[in-house]
Structure formats: C-alpha cells, structure tokens
User: Fold these one by one.
Assistant:
Number 1:
Amino acid sequence: MTRSLNGKVAVITGAGSGMGRSMALRLAEDDARIAIWDINAAGAEETARMVREAGGTAIAIEADCSDKAAIKAAADRTRRELGKIAILINNAGIAPFTPFLEIDEALLERVMRVNMFGPFFVTQECVPDMIEAKWGRIINITSSSVQSGSALQTHYTSSKGALLGFTKCLAMALGEHGITANMIPPGSIDTPMLRGAEIMQKPGVIEAYGAALPVGRIGQGEDIAAAAAFLASEEAGYMTGQTISVNGGRYMGSA
Ligand SMILES: NC(=O)c1ccc[n+]([C@@H]2O[C@H](COP(=O)([O-])OP(=O)(O)OC[C@H]3O[C@@H](n4cnc5c(N)ncnc54)[C@H](O)[C@@H]3O)[C@@H](O)[C@H]2O)c1
C-alpha cells in the first residue's frame, strides 16, 4: 500500500464487477477513497465491502450511469459523503455480440446510451470539481476492438470508438486546468462480461485464446488496474490524450 493518492476521491463506474472492481481495490491501495457507481447494487456493495476489508474507504451507489438524473444524484451523494471528485474512471459498459444486419435501432441506441452518452454525461458532472481543484484525472475504458475491428460488434465498437475521439477532445479542452484524459483499450480480460459472451461458451476457449497471445495468458482485472493506477497518479501528469493498450500483445499498432 502506498499513500500516493492521498485521500483523493475516485469515481469508478461499473465497479460492481470485473475490471472495475479490480481498479477500485487497486486505487484504494494507493489511498484513493472510492465511489462505486453501478446499476447492480449488490455488486457495488460487494466491491465496497472488499475495499473496506482491505483497509480502504469506499461507498456503493446504485446508479444507471446512462441516466442524467441518476448521475446527478450519484455525484451529489459522493460529494456529500466523500468530498469533491478528483479522479473519474468511465468503465461501465455493455458488450453485446450481434450480426451487423440484425442490429435494430433500439439495440444501437441502448449500446450508444450506456457506452457513449453515459461517459459523456458522467464526465460533464464530475469535471467542474476538477477545474475548481486545478487537478483531475479522467480514464476512459475503451476496447481493443477499436484497434482491430470486431465482426459481431459494429454497435459496441462504434460506441467505444466515439470514446476515443471524446478522450482526445477532453485532453485538449481540459489540459489548461491540470486535468488529463487518457484511455485504456483492454484486450480480452477474464471478467463476468467475457465469461458471459456467447462466443466464449465452449469449454477451454478462453484459455486457448490466452495461450495464443504473445504473453501466453488471458488478461486479468489486475492488469487493467495497474495501468489505471499509473494514469491516476501524480507522476502521469505529462501524459494526456494517450492510449495504454493492455492486451497481452494482441494488437501492437498505434491508435
Ligand atoms: N472483459 C473484456 O474482455 C473487455 C474487453 C474490452 C473492453 N472491456 C470494457 O471494460 C469495461 C468493464 O468490463 P468488464 O469486463 O469488467 O464487465 P462486467 O460486465 O464484469 O462489468 C461491467 C459493470 O458495468 C455495470 N454497468 C453496466 N451498465 C451500466 C449502467 N448503465 N450504469 C451503471 N453501471 C452499469 C455492470 O452492472 C457491471 O457491474 C466495459 O466498458 C467493457 O466494455 C472489457
């Protein structure tokens, strides 16, 4: 445990599961105080319990992070109970697999609302605190599918691609206030989302996929959390608008 984040308040959306939970535990190790915003109340409570059990501070807030009113209520409660928001990780997301011609308007709108409108509104809600403090860290969880393409995820990859442009614009718009905005496009990470994907249901497919990667294994939430901890740190202050590709070598280009 280090004390490098010195009690700063970190909002992590979707931290009731998967890599969000790993990031909550990791940032709490660096002494961030964590606000978990998740539509899954039980998952959020479980993460908060795990953080507290490890000696950290966390609150769980049930919130649909694609809904402006719910976002406002979550931010108000976070400020009341923990203080002004210094670090934001836009991590909540949904990742359906659907053939292109079968994606209807309702599904496209849902994916865009959760994966793109949500981070946009959450960031608008949190940034004024960072401007006031002249310090902030925004980390957007995108996807390696933006770098490589993904045949069954035209909706999902479009939403995450929008986050890529969003992140670079935030870096331009907010740099003068001491705020950085960066992104992590995970490769395949062993979370409930990955395990739940229809294409991953055959026994051994996840492990086989991992074995074929340069590092020889599937990713873990802790791999993403390590990169997030760096981007959230004081030391990362000269890095903005950038991508840290945590993907086991799946994709090595630049994007
Ligand atoms: N697991 C992977 O291989 C992988 C790869 C690339 C990108 N990602 C991205 O990483 C992020 C985290 O994924 P994960 O694998 O940990 O998934 P996960 O399903 O384990 O966790 C996602 C969390 O987001 C929450 N959530 C979903 N919609 C929400 C909403 N509207 N409001 C609030 N919370 C909501 C869920 O309740 C869940 O707790 C997602 O944005 C995902 O697209 C994951």
Note: The domain at 9-188+221-236 is CATH 3.40.50.720 (Rossmann fold).
Number 2:
Amino acid sequence: MKILLTGAEGQLGRDFLFAAAARHEVVAHDVDLDITNRKAVLERVASVSPHIVVNAAAFTDVDRAELEEVAAYRTNALGPYNLALACREEDIPFLHVSTDFVFRGDSTEPYTEFDSPAPMSVYGKSKYAGECYVRSLLNRYYICRTSWLFGVSGKNFVKTMIEKGKTEPRVKVVDDQEGCPTYSRDLAFKLLEIIEKGIYGIYHVSNSGSCTWYQFTRDIFDIAMIDTPVSPISTEEISRLAPRPKYSVMRSVVLEMQGIEPMRPYREALEDFILRDLPEWEKQDEKTR
Ligand SMILES: NC(=O)c1ccc[n+]([C@@H]2O[C@H](COP(=O)([O-])OP(=O)(O)OC[C@H]3O[C@@H](n4cnc5c(N)ncnc54)[C@H](OP(=O)(O)O)[C@@H]3O)[C@@H](O)[C@H]2O)c1
C-alpha cells in the first residue's frame, strides 16, 4: 500500500513512519507540506497518488491554542478539511488522528465512540471541527481519537517527569484529571491494523487502563527507579490557560465490536518505553550528534 503521511516529524508521525515503512511504501511530509495550503495539498495528493492519506499533523499546544485561536483552527480544522477534499478528489480513504479533548470530561464512565463530543478548550473545539469536516466530506474515513501521548521523540509528560524527578527535590502533580496514557508506538501499530482491516468509522485508540497525572507519575518513578517524593495537587493549584477535561477516559466499543484486539495496558507500554526504547533512542541520538 502507498501511504501519504503528514506530520511525519511529530511524536506520532515518527512512530507511524517506523511502523508502516516495514510493510508499506510511505511518502512522508511534515511542515514542508503545509496542510493549511489547499492548493499544495491537492497537488501533492494528486501527484503521489497514494492508496490512503494519514494525518498526524496538528497544532498540539493546548494552552497556546487559547491565545492563537485562528492558527489552531487553521491547522486542526482547515488542515483536515483540505486533506479530506484531496482524498475525495482522488477517491481514496483518509485516516485522521483526533483527541480525547473533544469530550467535556464530566462523565463518570469511559467515553465510547457513540458518546457526543462537547469540547471546552480551543484545542478541543478545533480538533472536533476537523472531525466534522472529515465526516461531512468523505464516506471512507477513519477518525482515530487518542489521548495522553508519550513517545521517544519530542517533548512529553513522561520525559518531563523523569527530568524533574532527577533534578528537583519534590514534584507536585495534579490528581484530579483522569485519562488514558498512550504510547505513540503502540498507537502507530494499531492505526496500521485498523487501516489494514479496512472498516471505516470513528475509533478510540488508547492503551488500556486509566489513571490521574499523579498516579501516572508514581508509575513513571517506580519504573525509572526515581525516589523523589511526589505530592498530589488539584487543577486549581496550577494556573493553565486552557481548561482540561476532569475525566477523559476512553473505551473502544468499536474495536471490540470489530473483533480488533484492545491495546495493552499503559503500564506495560510505559515499561517498554522507559526501560528499552527511550535509552535505545537516546543512544542513537548521541551517535548522530
Ligand atoms: N500529544 C498528545 O498528548 C495527544 C493527545 C491526544 C491526541 N493527540 C493527537 O495526536 C496527533 C499527533 O500528535 P503529536 O503529539 O504527535 O503531535 P506533534 O508532536 O506536535 O506533531 C505534530 C507535527 O505536525 C507538524 N505540523 C504542525 N502544523 C502543520 C502544518 N500546518 N502542516 C504540516 N505539518 C504541521 C508539527 O510541526 P512543528 O512542530 O514544526 O509545528 C509536528 O511535526 C495529533 O492529531 C494530536 O491532536 C495528541
């Protein structure tokens, strides 16, 4: 299969490229193909003539999105609009990655694909707008919502906490937001499995299990053998521009319904990430420096 990938330099994009390149031909783009540029997107998709387009490009800075609303909407809504339009022109399917932030977070039960989004933040609203465009333009789409990503490349919560744990005497972490941490490498392989199965629709694609950021930090420190004390705090104690869902735990009824294996528990994925993949990646990174 020939796959045109956007956002290939991002956390998920890099892992998707790694996962897909072994079995498929991948034409990878990042900011060199600005997804907000309709003409460039239409021309590139037509000239590559892929079997599918996968979009991992996004405006992912949740707090900055509150200050740069139009920029967030351009990338997260207009970007997928352009890509969906190009897929419609070429009569090919589209896989678009979305987020748990499309939910309000006032539920007490995990959100399934059949629950209604009600985003609170600019980021969540712009990502939901992207989903709506994709759904209105195409019949053959996969909208894959994921959450709390960590991976070897880029900045993420796990790396930040390991750094803080090694350099600060005590760390304070919020204990009143619950979600599903997800390893971007696991996600990449699951997205491929979904594409290869070829059943269109909305999917929730996160590692199994849920925790608060505080509990997640305890897991991280436990695996990384960091004994720095961790204190639980409330969201109100840290000032952030964007509101966060208190509870954005997702469950995939669709994966279950389609007989696709759920993703493994996040703790298992975190162990592989901290003990195997991150040191390996840092070693390689050192060599190329
Ligand atoms: N990170 C999370 O915790 C999380 C949680 C839930 C869902 N998601 C979703 O998962 C997907 C992947 O996230 P990620 O963490 O891998 O994101 P990321 O690391 O921020 O990567 C996004 C990539 O897209 C590029 N990009 C930004 N604007 C672009 C544009 N206009 N045209 C082309 N490329 C552009 C970025 O380049 P620059 O870096 O140069 O801007 C970056 O390389 C996104 O759809 C995101 O909404 C992420």
Note: The mean pLDDT is 97.
